[in-house]
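Researcher: Quick test of sequence recovery. Tokens follow.
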């Protein structure tokens, strides 16, 4: 929920500060009746991270937020959930309340550029540079009407391996993820940049993820240690 939406309907809300929600990603599971475009909530997703802001809201002002999110309608659009977030202010975990779509659509809806721009502004104001980069990429995809569908990728984790095997960057993948692959090279694409890396399989790497070396992350312009979504 945008900061302005919180403070408008809960004027006594006090800002706690920046927060991180692990093991979740942004989901655009509902089409707004007002704009006809996708609006966001969150959904559990192992390995992903959502960044945001934490408020303390007086009990007497909760009803205004519930009404704004459509949680008080006969057929509610959103419902509240309790989540464990990490507060950067006091460096500890807190229990927080958020909103999720009651009946998400099977296919995620495309959000408007204006909607994502508001999210980007908030990420910039909170000084989440890596998260802002992710949101800007998401906005580019949203406005590219003729762009092909997003291809499935793998969750990227870092590895401390620095040496390039045979002069190539290194990518490590669980053998069960790729099945039988004879090639020892793999093409890696990120944010419009493409390069070739050496492919290595290792059972200790979690399935549906991959590890890439520091030099490759730097060459592709990957920022931060988290995978956002």
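Model:
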């Amino acid at each position: 929920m945008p900061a302005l939406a919180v403070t408008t309907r809960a004027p006594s809300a006090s800002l706690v500060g920046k927060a991180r929600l692990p093991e979740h990603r942004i989901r655009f599971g509902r089409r707004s009746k007002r704009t006809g475009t996708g609006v966001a909530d969150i959904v559990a997703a192992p390995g992903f991270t959502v960044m945001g802001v934490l408020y303390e809201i007086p009990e007497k002002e909760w009803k205004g937020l519930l009404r704004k999110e459509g949680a008080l309608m006969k057929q509610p659009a959103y419902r509240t959930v309790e989540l464990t977030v990490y507060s950067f202010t006091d460096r500890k975990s807190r229990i927080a309340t958020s909103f999720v779509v009651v009946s998400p659509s099977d296919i995620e809806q495309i959000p408007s550029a204006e909607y994502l721009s508001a999210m980007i502004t908030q990420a910039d104001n909170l000084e989440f540079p890596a998260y802002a980069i992710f949101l800007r990429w998401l906005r580019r995809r949203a406005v590219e009407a003729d762009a092909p569908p997003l291809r499935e990728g793998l969750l990227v984790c870092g590895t401390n391996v620095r040496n390039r095997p045979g002069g190539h960057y290194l990518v490590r993948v669980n053998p069960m993820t790729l099945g039988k692959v004879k090639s020892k090279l793999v093409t890696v694409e990120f944010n419009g940049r493409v390069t070739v890396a050496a492919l290595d399989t290792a059972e200790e790497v979690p399935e549906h993820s991959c590890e890439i070396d520091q030099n490759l992350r730097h060459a592709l312009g990957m920022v931060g240690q988290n995978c956002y979504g």
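The radius of gyration is 20 Å.
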